[in-house]
Amino acid sequence: MEISAFELLSALFILVLAAFVGYEVVSKVPTMLHTPLMSGANAVHGVIVVGAMLVAASSEGPIRIALALLGVILGTINVVGGFVVTDRMLEMFKKRPGEQTRERN
Amino acid sequence: MDTLEVLTYIVWLIASVTFILALKFLASPSTARRGNQLGAAGMALVVAWTFVSTEGMLENWWIIVVGGAIGSVAGYLGAKRVPMTAMPQMVAIFNGAGGGAAAVVAVAEFLEFAGHGNGSLLPLPFVIATLAGAIIGSVALTGSVVAWGKLQGVISGRPVQYPGSQIVTAVLFLAAMGLGVYLVAVENSIPLFLVFVAISLVLGVQLTMPIGGADMPVVVSLLNSYTGIAVAATGFVLGNYALLIAGTLVGASGAILTQLMCKAMNRSIFNVLFAGFGTGGDTATAGPEGEEQLREISADDAAVLMAYGKRVIIVPGYGMAVAQAQGPVRELMDLLVARGVDVQFAIHPVAGRMPGHMNVLLAEANVPYDRLKEMDEINDDFADTDVALIIGANDVVNPAAREEGSPISGMPILNVDHAQNIIVLKRGRGAGFAGIPNPLFSNEKTTMLFGDAKPSVAALVAGVKQA
Fold first, then answer.
1. Which residues of A touch B264 (CB under 8 A)?
2. Cα separation values, B186 from B32, B180, B231, B432, Å
3. Domain assignment present for B40
4. Does the annotation mark B395 as catalytic?
5. Per-residue pLDDT reduced to its tens digit, B172-224
6. How many angstroms separate the CA atoms of B449 and B439, rounded?
């Protein structure tokens, strides 16, 4: 296998720019949403399931198949659990209409 | 580059944009849920595309179907059934699963390429990224399991340190680094690589065990960031930009979130990870002389104070969470508001076990989020407040933080002692989670209402109804 300098540099560019995007985006999230933020970010790195799928696609032999299966199971737990639990948390941040007017009378 | 490949890159791009928007939309409660759903849709797209477009996938389709079914059921049931109070440990488990998956992918790739090599060394960047994915993913896996155990109470919340434990950690770390250099530069040895992974797994336990239960949220956030980095590394190994971007995004956001959490406690990340802070139990007791000075109040008297006040600020803490008292608290708020009392909630950034933990619980009980005020926003209002009602919070209102020489010195706290009256609802007479005595309780303006938060708040509700 070979890795060209261009591939390496592209990856480096993506890495650095994505890190800045992550920093900027998260700096604007208010404290009260930090728990859903942690959980939501957790769901996003569940994309590792795609990596496990790629291993599965090129699997021959029992060891690689076992690893692929384990990877897909763990990755799916991360992705499904992560998004569902975040949705459950965020569902509760509903604003009730009329509440603001009731406050100062 | 054929059409299929071009489409693959475009799918990665779309998915990456949805992931960024998922985090960006979290800036406001009104868009947050939509953002999360968008991220989930992007995830579904990239998973579906990978399944239909990858060569060889159809021969091994059953791995995806079986693994996906098991993982979906486990993840869905776990996420749906977990009580809101146990949210931090659930996030820890999901994070551990992600870290484990990253490590598994890294191991599979190393075995594949080192096994088929002709003796010549694999390219340096490939091996470095594979080793990074394996070690960071492994640490995230076992570290998350320990963090789960500590939050769940399966493992003692105390900082567990045996003599020489830090030396063992250092030796393991150096051994892993040495092996790593050897694997990269001298020989792509499979047995040594497996030793490297085993050391990484032990390292995750070693790094997390010495940290007190009260600091676990910071650790979960840090491990979340680690998993992100591990995913980015495997993304590089596989040449998959969706993984590279998503992983880096989470790695960076987890790091900044960890930093924000440490800042809220006025401690450095180094202090959190290595100082063995916090006893992690409600077992530590205040001295007997401190106990005698506490003045108790009946629920009815406390209810009258609040019902005839102009402004009440409620300060929730972990005690409210464990007692599941958020429903009665909301009832109390409704009754007081109906009487014309101005009721606000003061949320300390680290109240409960995670930042925003209180917000989630109160939102669950339908307390409108515009009544939840952050510390800086409400701290000046206490002086103009009739009653500060503290429900199961302790360290975040401990004035000892303003003095020198306390373990929490310098931590910003809520100025509840500026209120006219302070009513503290507390389970027992012991010190708080961090095991530090709290002089607020012997303040002359403070009265105590002992007992589990739920019946205590219910008694206050009954009292306000009669007042």
1. 31
2. 49, 10, 26, 53
3. no
4. yes
5. 999 999 999 999 999 999 999 999 999 999 999 999 998 887 788 889 999 99
6. 16
**Using CB atoms, which residue from B78, B246, B261 is nearest to A44?**
B246
Query: How many Cβ atoms sit within 10 Å of the Cβ of residue B76?
Result: 17
Sketch the domain layout of chain A as residue ranges: 34-88
In a domain, B359, yes or no: yes
Q: Is B181 helix (H, G, I), strand (E, B) or coil?
A: helix
Q: Nearest residue on chain A to B227, judged by CA atoms? A: A45
**Lowest mean pLDDT segment, chosen from A67-76, A94-103, B360-369:** A94-103
Within 8 A of B19 by CB-CB distance, chain A residues are 44, 47
Of the residues B215, B282, B395, B417, only one is catalytic, namely B395
Same domain, B255 and B192: yes
What is the 3-state secondary structure of B399-424? Answer: HHHHCCCCCCCCCCCCCHHHCCEEEE
Preferred mutation among A17, A28, A47, A94 to probe B, highest tally of B CBs within 10 A: A47
Nearest to A67 among B47, B74, B107 (CB): B107
Give ipTM to 2 decimals. Answer: 0.91
Taken in order B146, B150, B153, B158, the sign of the CA dihedral is positive
CB atoms B36 and A70 under 8 Å? no
Q: Do A14 and B248 touch (CB under 8 A)?
A: yes
The whole-number average pLDDT for the span A25-48 is: 90
* B93 or A101, greater pLDDT: B93
Residue B173 shares a structural domain with residue B259: yes
List, for chain B, all residue ranges whose pLDDT scores fall below the cut of 50.
279-292
Tokens 């106990």, residue? B291
Rounded distance between C-alpha atoms, residue B139 and residue B196, angstroms: 12
Asked if the C-beta of B242 comes within 8 angstroms of chain A's C-beta atoms, the answer is yes
Q: Are residues B305 and B411 in the same domain?
A: yes
Q: Is the pLDDT of residue A104 over 70?
A: no
For residues B299 and B235, membership in a common domain is answered with: no
Q: Show the domain range for B313.
A: 288-466
- Residue pair A36/B357 in contact (Cβ under 8 Å)? The answer is no
B431 domain-assigned: yes
B251, B274, B297 — which closes off a domain? B274
**Average confidence score pLDDT of chain A:** 86
In the structure encoding, which two tokens stand for residue B89, read together? 């440990």
CATH of the domain at B294: 3.40.50.1220
- Report the number of distinct structural domains present in chain B: 2
**Residue B269 shares a structural domain with residue B311:** no
Mean of the pLDDT values across residues A72-100?
82
Q: What's the pLDDT score for residue B170?
A: 93
Same domain, B228 and B331: no
